[in-house]
Amino acid sequence: GAALGAIGALAAGAPGALRRALWPRLGEATALRSAFAVYALVGVVVLITYRRLRPHPDRAQAAPATPLGPSRRIVYRLAALFSLDAFGGGFVVQSILVLWLSERHDLAASTTGLIFFWSGLASGLSTLAAPWLARRIGLIRTMAFTHLPANLFLVAAALVPDTTTAVVLLLARAALSQMDVPARTSYVMAVVSPPERPAAASITNVPRSLAAALPPFVAGWLLSHTTFGWPLGLGG
Predict the structure, then answer these.
(1) Are 39 and 137 in contact (CB under 8 A)?
(2) Which of 101, 138, 171, 187: CA 20 to 30 A from 226?
(3) What is the C-alpha separation between 236 and 90, in angstroms, rounded?
(4) CA distance 97 to 90
(5) Angle between helices 163-177 and 139-159 (to 10 degrees)
(6) How far apart are CA 31 and CA 60, in angstroms?
(7) Distances (CA, A) of 32 to 37, 41, 111, 220
């Protein structure tokens, strides 16, 4: 999934390149809108694929789902922690990073797409390394000892004036920032009983989405007043 997302980011510059090569008279905005059309078509393919899946997987060996019981306290604490993490991450969603790279470092869409291609690959490979690391230092340390340096790289990227250094720091951050995802999921599933797992997954994920809703609005407002990387610093 991460690899294909990286390829999609790399293709972000394709509409502009095709316009210059094949249809020079075509407006840039029209060429960019073609990317949205491709995105919509891929969504249709995804819809068709999901409709072919079985609505109910084989639950012969699974315990029936129940609401949270004895694990309620720890799940609520984890939901609060994950929501705080999502709130910080909301300042540096991909669209905000693209806007910042364009405004601060004057990077074209094709160049930004290349950066997110490599960052996507780095994130995917680091996810594969997370279980290996968790077996050696534990799930909590895997989350903390990778997330802390990743956020320091993010803050440093906001401070450095040089474009190359900023990009290197963002790539270093991408190589560490997603390693907590498999560890986080594994930890939640491990601290609750099997019947509570569906409820625990919902309660730890829904607040994350809500917490990440406001920061992009604030980040966009900040970037409309200054090109300095305030969103990166706040998120870090």
Answers:
(1) no
(2) 171
(3) 10
(4) 11
(5) 170
(6) 51
(7) 9, 15, 15, 21
pLDDT tens-place string over residues 78-105: 999 999 999 999 999 999 999 999 999 9
Residue of 161, 213, 201 lying closest to 67 (CA atoms): 201
CA triplet 94, 99, 103: central angle to 5 degrees? 150
Distances (CA, A) of 146 to 27, 77, 216: 44, 21, 24
- Give the C-alpha separation, 124 to 118, whole Å: 10
Whole-model pTM: value is 0.84
> 72-77, long-range: CB within 8 Å, 24+ apart, which pairs?
74/191, 74/192, 75/188, 75/191, 75/192, 75/196, 75/199, 75/200, 75/203, 75/204, 76/203
Angstrom distance (rounded) from CA 218 to CA 174: 22
* Chain Cα centroid distance, residue 180: 12
Cα separation, 75 vs 26, in Å, equals: 54
